[in-house]
Amino acid sequence: MSAAAGSAYATGGMGQSNAETLHKLSALATLGILIGIFAFGNAAFLSVNNGLTVLLQTSVIGLLGIGMTMVIITGGIDLSVGAVLALSGTATGLMVKAGVPVPLAMAGGVGVGALCGLINGLVVTKLRITPFVATLGMMMIARGTALQLTGAAPVSRLGEAFGRLGNGALFRIVEQQPNGLSKVAFPGIPYPAILLLVVALMAAFLLKRRPLGRHIYATGSNEEAARLSGVNVNRTKIAAYVMSGALAGLAGNVLMSRLVTAQPNEGVMYELDAIAAAVIGGASLMGGVGTISGTMIGAFIIGVLRNGLNMAGVSAFIQQIIIGFVVIAAVFVDQLRSRR
Amino acid sequence: MSPLVEMIDIEKHFGGIKAVDRVSLDLREGEVVGVLGHNGAGKSCLMRILSGAMAPSAGTIRVGGAEANIDSPHAARGLGIETIYQTLALADHLDAPANLFLGRELRTRWGNLDERRMLEEARKVLARLNPNFRNLGDPVSRLSGGQRQVIAIARAIYFDVKILIMDEPTAALGPAETAMVSELIRQLKQEGIGIFLVSHDMHDVFELCDRVVVMNRGRKVGSHSVSEVSKDDVLSLIIKGELPGGWVPREAERVQ
Question: Which run of H or of E encompasses A8?
């Protein structure tokens, strides 16, 4: 889905190498093979319902992955996204509880995420703290704040409107049956999936078609060269961290809305899934390399693996082990190619 | 006519160390000035100050007679000061047009990158420097040293350059490409562009420059027209910081 969307912008300026295209193709093939295997093992895997479930489950990792990709391309890393997701979601929940209208509260939650990102960006550029340490600190600060604000207790009874973003769907078709009961003919496309598609398209456009995107790649590719060329390297980095924070906030709102509860404990270790998605999709932690379409493929590989293994009755622990191997294998295959 | 650029009493300290010690330097239209000295003599430092990559500790810079505040590479480029760095300063993952226009991207009406126009312009300016230049869509990491140098030069001359700083422009080049750079310098000189040529190659310096400025331990120890000094005189300045004993100008008049 978003893979095709991203690749529409994948030409020009980036000097996209064959190796990069090849990586994306092999990641896409991996995704296809996974789907084939799971479908063979369980017919229900290919059902519309399950497809939509995968979309829904992947949307949170996908949103985090998009922000993570931008930061990784600048040569940085954002370890705080899981905690920022929790802080933003609980901030929204608390605001709704205090009587703020839901859309406004959600915008506020995303704003909290963006603010965390801004602080990350300022600490990295102005205090010259390495991104790993700066965002590790923010991870603890955001998580602690979320727990402190709520007393570590979930904020529930947030009302129907709060749950719409995470549970609603577009084109939902409900038929009236002769016996008077209603039947869901088509469950509709979940809002989170639509949101992910829109955000992915916008991010791909930003990276490939806007000067800021060009500067994000240049900064990660050769920071000194970018600076000497007149690129405002600090502003570019700050922009990447702000977008990562805002998208973590958005993901937090989607997730809490889906649960109709603001959970300060949500999103632990999600940053690692987001990094894994970006890396499986071909992003390099050295900076300068990465695409939104690749990260989307990576996110779906993780999502499909989880979903398929769940349906096959494989334990969550074994799932972690398998995904761990996939991450290492993806990077190894990538290295083999670039060494040649 | 006032000089293109005047650097007046420039100083740069790193802690207690004076990397540049009250150096004044100027450059006129169509003049090629060789800047020489050992590694660490302060010549790179001085050039980095002029290109906005480094802030001076003290001193003033005048461009076209007016005092200029060069606080960033961006500001320097805005004044027509372009630099070709020895490291080339290219973003390896980007292609040639993207590097050429980095920081000054051509934009469409909506502010998006105008890839088509950048490609066309890049093709033109690169062809002027090297008619065989292809691979405009490849990341520059995959290009040869000569091709990369061509991109770095193209980036400096494409925009409205008045003052060009070339830091060891031929160090990584083969004979054919070196000849191309020499030809280019003569061409730019004809167009009235002032050039600072930082080089270790005495042959290049004497062939291309009108004047040599020698730095030693952060101080300017000499500024001479190439017609009044020999290579040995310049070597003495570089190594000892002074002219050989009993030196007299080869021709009567001294420039400064």
Answer: none
| pLDDT score, position A186 | 79
Residue of chain A with shortest Cα separation from B74: A230
Nearest to A15 among B77, B111, B138 (CB): B138
Structure tokens at B198: 């930082």
pLDDT > 90 fraction of chain B, expressed in percent and rounded:
57
Is the pLDDT assigned to residue B98 strictly greater than 90?
A: yes
Mean pLDDT over A10-18 rounds to 55
Angstrom distance (rounded) from CA B69 to CA A126: 22
Q: What pLDDT shows up at residue A137?
A: 98
| Domain span including residue A297 | 2-339
Structure tokens at A231: 């690129």
A205 pLDDT exceeds 50? yes
The Cα B38–Cα A1 span in angstroms is 59
Q: What is the pLDDT of residues B220-232, one digit of tens each?
A: 998 999 888 888 8
CATH number at residue A318: 1.10.3470
User: What pLDDT is stored for residue B246 in this prediction?
Assistant: 73
- What ranges in B21-174 are assigned the alpha helix state H? 43-50, 73-78, 96-100, 115-129, 145-158
Which site among A18, A23, A228 would you substitute to test the B interface, given the most B Cβ atoms closer than 10 Å to its Cβ? A228
Select from B77, B90, B93 the Cβ nearest to the Cβ of A230: B77
Residue count (chain B): 256
How far is Cα B230 from Cα B158, in angstroms, rounded to an integer? 35
Q: Using 50, 70 and 90 to split pLDDT, how confident is the model at A323?
A: confident
Angle between helices B145-158 and B175-190 (to 10 degrees): 10
Query: What domains are defined for chain B?
Result: 1-80+160-256 (3.40.50.300), 91-154 (no CATH)
State how far the Cα of B168 lies from the Cα of B164, in Å rounded to an integer.
Answer: 13
Report the percentage of chain A scoring pLDDT > 70. Answer: 93
The residues of B whose Cβ lies within 8 A of any Cβ of A are 51, 53, 72-74, 77, 83, 85, 87-99, 102-105, 107, 111-113, 115, 118-119, 137-140, 142, 155
Q: Which residue has the tokens 């042959």?
A: B203
Residues A35-45 have a mean pLDDT of 88
pLDDT at B76: 94
SS (H, E, C) A27-86: HHHHHHHHHHHHHHHCHHHHCHHHHHHHHHHHHHHHHHHHHHHHHHHCCCCCCCHHHHHH
Dihedral over Cα of A306, A311, A317, A319: its sign? negative
Q: Which residues of B touch A15 (CB under 8 A)?
A: 93-96, 98, 137-140
Q: How many domains does chain A have?
A: 1
3-class secondary structure for A258-285? HHCCECCCCCCCHHHHHHHHHHHCCCCC
**Mean predicted confidence (pLDDT) in A124-134:** 97
